[in-house]
Specification:
Order of helices and strands: HHHHEEHHHHHHH
Radius of gyration: 21 Å
Largest sheet: 2 strands, antiparallel
Strand order of the largest sheet: 1-2
Oligomer: single chain
Low-confidence stretches: 1-6
Structural class: mainly alpha
Mean pLDDT: 89
Helix content: 55-70%
Number of strands: 2
Number of helices: 11
Number of domains: 2
Strand content: under 5%
Length: about 350
Amino acid sequence: MHGHRKRPWNRAPWVLALMTTLCAELTFTAVAVPKTWLLLPLLLVMYGAGVLVIREAVVRVGGGWPSLVLLGVAYQLAEDGLGLQALTSPRMYGAADWGLRAFGVNLTYWESQIGVHVVLSVLVPVGLTNLLFPAHRDRPYLSNKGMVGAIALAIVGVFGLRVFISGLMDPGCRTPWGWTAAFLALIALCWILALVVLPHRRTRRVRPARSVPRPEVVGFVSLYLTMAFLTTLLPLGLGSHLLLGDLMSPLQRLFVAALTAVPFGLLVLRWKAAADWSDRHRIWLIGGILVSHTAFMMYGSVSAVCVGAVTLVVEVYLLTVLTRHVRRRATGRRDGHHAAQLGAM
């Protein structure tokens, strides 16, 4: 009789949970506020479990990047609208001074966090995990029981934000019931569109670029446009200095930021559809976003500059290691294919 083989341990979901936390907070907020590391257990539960649920749900229904983007928006609403209550709070982070506030909601903060969470909390961590575990790219990571557990942890994470961050930084703050209902409705709509509507619709093929620029150029473009988006909406280092505050009105900044983010997304889609798009391009694209994201926080104090510099060195080193790993894997596949061809002769 053959003994039951143990199911091999799947590292991918744990890596995704860690990547999400690192990309979203520990290479951003923690640069200016190193105490953020003390919240690592809560951040792993909220970010890690939340994005793991998003990735699992999209893969199980056969969805693609549009579904990930919509669920990233839903995730942002759950975190900032229901957990932190930062979308409606007039005091949290001092964000009420950053831009346009209307109907009781901070629209500037909302737009900035949609961009940050869709890209840094969802798309970048999922992309990095796919590069590390390409064989699992289109497969679920979790069993049904694991999925239920991840959903429960994500909900606990949102409540944890309400208690341990919103409750301490802005005690007494309560999102109006009308906006709570609106956020819940928007979250439900995003999930329905992402998991029921989009996977069964034929998406129009993006016209591919004739040729993709060198990976270094892709990295520079992503670095520049990420910084342009962030500095249009947010003060450097999340302090009090708005780089473009005297040049544009709050409403104009909302439009300019959107006109930065949307064309950038369309450009990336054209690049990805090109025949010469490669894993090196993906790594440089992600690297530009991450480096710019971290550099944005290196303002306001010597501590932020020092912590940010160390963070940037570690980011670049790890991306270099990933590039080498991807290159060795590609070389191994080519050698294996060549050996198989020789054996068949």
